[in-house]
Amino acid sequence: MTEPLVKWSYKGEKGPHYWGHICDEYEIAHTGKNQSPIDIHMEKVMEVQGAPPLELDYKETKYTVRRVENSVHLFPQSKEQGLTYGGQRYNLIAFHGHVPSEHTLNEHYFAMEWHLVHMNEAGERLVLGIWMEQELEGSDFGELASVFPEVFADFGIEKELLLDVSGFLPENRAYFTYQGSLTTPPTFEGVTWIVLRDVTSIAEEDFEAFQDIIEDTNRPLQALGDRQIHHSA
Ligand SMILES: [Zn+2]
Predict the structure, then answer these.
(1) Domains of the chain: which residue ranges?
(2) What are phi and psi of 61, to 5 degrees?
(3) Sign, Cα dihedral of 208, 212, 214, 219
(4) At the top level of CATH, which class does the domain 35-232 belong to?
(5) pTM (2 d.p.)
(6) Can the peptide bond before residue 185 be classed as cis, meaning omega within 30 degrees of 0?
(7) Which residues form the Alpha-carbonic anhydrase domain (predicted)?
(8) Residue 73 catalytic?
């Protein structure tokens, strides 16, 4: 098989500091004022009473697992799950993880961060971020840890997996939110970020399997600029 060209990287001359100069399409990485990820610093966070509730309704679904660029992504075969936020419905379209976390809390990096990527009818993106720390026992990833290296090795390999992402989520729905971008090129803006405040756990064994493949897939922190981070009270 022919490997599709991976146009960007996490290190070297195609690394994050150069993304904005690789091609015109990626320019926003360099010129954008609403880029992600950011440090969520509690001193800069505004607590909002009566913030829009976040209603999550994920269920056990079949996912297609395959390599995308520098990572492994999972695509739900049914779009009938997702979340409701601010009166709008967003369906889950894909998810993936980063090691270590991309967003930080008071400059603290967590072991891992999952990104559940959603889209509403208007085509607007909302990404739900979930922080995880390594523990002895953790979230149920099913067969994902064993499938991960297999699909990463070859762009032509696809696997199917039954998974329920609600098994990753903390019980508390408190969240941070701000307006940002995708964290991989092209780092388009107009993305609503919701990062769950509570941290869940990942078992050491699963973490090591993911770490082997996607270690250092975190884009460096971007300037907050004039943006406001809200915290649901
Ligand atoms: Zn991501």
Answers:
(1) 35-232
(2) -145, 150
(3) positive
(4) alpha beta
(5) 0.95
(6) no
(7) 6-233
(8) yes
